Amino acid sequence: MRIAVTGATGVLGQEAVEALVAAGHEVTGITRRDSGVPIVEGRGGAAIVADVFDPSDLARAFRGHDTVINTLAHVPVGMAGLRPLAWREDDRLHLEASVAIAKAAADAGVRKLIQESSVFLYPDNGTDWITEDLSLSVRNQAFRPRVREMRAAVDFATAGRSAVVLRLGQLFGRDPQSTHALKATREGDPILLGKPENYITLLHHSDAGRAFVAALRAGSGFYNVGGEPITRGRWAKDLAMEAGVETPAKFYPEITQAIVGTRLEVQRRSLRVSSVRFMSETGWRPTVGPSTKGWSRR
Predict the structure, then answer these.
(1) Angle at 246 between CA 243 and CA 251, to 5 degrees
(2) Are 48 and 31 in contact (CB under 8 A)?
(3) pLDDT, tens digit, for every residue of 188-224?
(4) Beta bridge partners of 202
(5) What is the pairing mode between strands 112-118 and 202-204?
(6) R_g of the chain computed on alpha carbons
(7) Is 225 in a helix, a strand, or coil?
């Protein structure tokens, strides 16, 4: 199958390209800059330079492909998300580029769109399980780009086309967020939001890459994708183990957490997310968990 991946030079996109190539697919990685070409080729894909905000340029890149996988994102690291304009690039990617990608894919005759999304769109659900049937908590204007992105994917799924939206758990692995968290843990600085008893659903980048391959077998719809949910207190201990220190990662004081704003407030929510639907339909299973030794180097 011929597959185009947008965001192919990002951590998630690189994992998708490598997993798809390993599964025997012909993969094209879309990059916005010439400097991204060797990154895509290093993962085994062919590279095309295209403007992800230009539907006509994207349609040129997508023509002849069966599926488009959109992994575009630009999430600020740590508390940098509190800075003015910190989310401007991420918002633009979801609000404008994702819409352009869906339109271009349709114009180019692509039959399937796989769109990355997030479990952080769900409301705090305490200790209760979260399935795809639970209503999202996205009324705040800050979520407008993600909502627009989902609508573009739904609009794509007409005229015999299909769209799969993957609500991914919190990613961890060899990425800037994880590196930042491990550094803070080693130095004894606070890094975690929420309460120790709250649940978190994690997803290793390598398993996320494999999930995009599995999604090729899924029918149109929304799917949760993550490992077995654990408490944030357990995650604090797992971070310490991976960081090579005895003291669990620290939580920010409540007074600090009270002022983090909507963007980071989602990381305080208790999200015990079930991925049973995706696993049942595709056969995908997570292979790397937060207690897996050396997960930050995989």
Answers:
(1) 75
(2) yes
(3) 999 999 999 999 999 999 999 999 999 999 999 999 9
(4) 170
(5) unpaired
(6) 19
(7) strand
Tokens of 116: 């990355």
Q: What is the CATH number of domain 2-297?
A: 3.40.50.720
Residues 40 and 5: their CA atoms lie apart, in Å, by 10
**Rounded distance between C-alpha atoms, residue 111 and residue 109, angstroms:** 6
- The encoded tokens of residue 276 equal 């049973």
Strands 230-231 and 199-200: what pairing?
antiparallel
The rounded distance, in Å, linking the Cα atoms of 56 and 96 is: 14
Where does the pLDDT of residue 84 fall: very low under 50, low under 70, confident under 90, or very high at 90 and above? Answer: confident
d(CA 14, CA 249): 28
Contacts of 42 (CB under 8 A, 6+ apart): none
Token output for 128: 């209760």
Reading the block at residue 95, the tokens are 């609000």
Dihedrals phi, psi of 73, to nearest 5 degrees: -170, 160
Q: Is the pLDDT higher at 298 or at 205? A: 205
In the predicted model, what is the mean pLDDT of residues 231-236?
Answer: 98
| Selection from 173, 170, 164 nearest residue 193 by Cα | 170
Q: What is the mean pLDDT of residues 80-85?
A: 87
Which residues on neighbouring strands pair with residue 112, listed in sequence order? 67, 162
- Domain map of the chain by residue range? 2-297
For residue range 115-166, what is the model confidence (pLDDT) as tens digits?
A: 999 999 999 999 999 999 999 999 899 999 999 999 999 999 999 999 999 9
Give the position of tokens 């963007």: 263
In 3-state terms, what secondary structure has residue 2?
Answer: strand
